[in-house]
Design goal:
Distance between the termini: 31 Å
Radius of gyration: 17 Å
Shape: globular
Low-confidence stretches: none
Helix content: over 70%
Number of strands: 0
Oligomer: single chain
């Protein structure tokens, strides 16, 4: 059996790091926006105590949840790499649309799309780990991937706050688009 192209170009550590970063995109998309809620409220003309902006989190999670069941079968049918790229593309479209949306309703809709895309890298990463590794190697790879996945929610609110202060809440979404 031949090795996938990615394996020939990347060493084990680099390959596992790439998988970890792919899976971390889902957590980044959730937590980076939290510090920007105040600025979003002000920009959208909402009262300072409005909870309407929390819809951007709910919509993202809903998109993430409903699309996960489709990525596995699609990755089995069309291959891991093409479906990973589809997830990245949808993630990018959702992030850019969120940054450019003129109304909160459109931001929420774009965040739903973003969540649809975020599920792809998450599902494909877990699938590739199971495909590629077994036993103790799989445990090590998953431990590293999950460590990165757990660290992202710790770091991303600080990143989001810095971006929102330096630029604007729209650039918080833009950063996610750039990181894809």
């Amino acid at each position: 059996m031949t090795q996938p192209d990615t394996e020939r170009r990347l060493g084990r550590v680099e390959f596992t790091a790439l998988l970890a970063m792919s899976m971390a995109l889902a957590a980044l998309g959730t937590d980076i926006v939290l510090p920007a809620f105040g600025e979003m409220r002000a920009d959208m003309g909402l009262p300072s105590d409005s909870t309407a902006v929390t819809g951007v989190i709910s919509a993202y999670f809903f998109g993430l949840a409903v699309s996960q069941v489709f990525y596995g079968p699609l990755a089995d049918r069309f291959g891991r790499k093409p479906i990973l790229y589809v997830g990245y593309a949808i993630y990018l479209i959702g992030a850019v649309a969120s940054a450019l949306a003129p109304t909160l309703e459109l931001v929420v809709a774009a965040r739903f799309v973003w969540g649809l895309g975020a599920a792809g890298p998450r599902v494909v990463t877990l699938t590739v780990v199971r495909d590629r590794y077994g036993g103790e190697e799989m445990s090590r790879a998953m431990s590293f991937i999950m460590a990165v996945f757990v660290l992202v929610p710790i770091v991303s609110p600080s990143l989001g706050a810095a971006v929102a202060v330096a630029l604007s809440w729209r650039w918080v979404f833009g950063v996610c688009a750039v990181l894809v």
